[in-house]
């Protein structure tokens, strides 16, 4: 009988690896679905929003400034804040689109 116990202890097999590394793999899978995947989804929607910016869109910057896009290039945006003030921002400083030019015209 002691000989069988020594053979079992010498070769742990698949069950030993599953018990050892199973919780680690499970933790990675849970973290992927709870943290990594939603962040990638938010990043994708934000980059699509930044790429779809156009002249006339009413936007809100990260700092909370509301304005209308007058000029837009690959990396900068010129916003009209009031009748006189024009401010230049990085394109990545735009946080959200509050209304597009087409939607504003339909309301009038």
Automatic annotation (TrEMBL):
GO biological process annotation, one example: protein transport
SMART domains: YajC
Pfam families found in the cross-reference section: YajC
Chain segments annotated as transmembrane: 16-36
Gene Ontology CC: plasma membrane
Coiled-coil features, chain-numbered ranges: none
Its membrane topology: Single-pass membrane protein
Subcellular location: Cell membrane
Alphabetized UniProt keyword annotations: Cell membrane, Membrane, Protein transport, Translocation, Transmembrane, Transmembrane helix, Transport
Top-level lineage group: Bacteria
NCBIfam families with a match to the protein in the record: yajC (TIGR00739)
Family: Belongs to the YajC family.
Name of the protein in question: Preprotein translocase subunit YajC
Origin species: Paenibacillus piri
Gene that produces this protein: yajC
């Amino acid at each position: 009988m002691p000989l069988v116990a020594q053979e079992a202890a010498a070769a742990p097999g698949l069950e030993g690896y599953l018990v050892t590394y199973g919780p680690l793999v499970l933790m990675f899978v849970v973290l992927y679905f709870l943290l990594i995947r939603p962040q990638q989804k938010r990043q994708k929607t934000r980059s699509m929003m930044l790429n779809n910016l156009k002249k006339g869109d009413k936007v809100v910057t990260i700092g909370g400034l509301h304005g209308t896009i007058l000029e837009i290039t690959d990396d900068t945006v010129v916003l009209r804040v009031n009748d006189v003030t024009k401010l230049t921002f990085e394109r990545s400083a735009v946080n959200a689109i509050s209304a597009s030019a087409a939607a504003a015209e339909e309301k009038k």
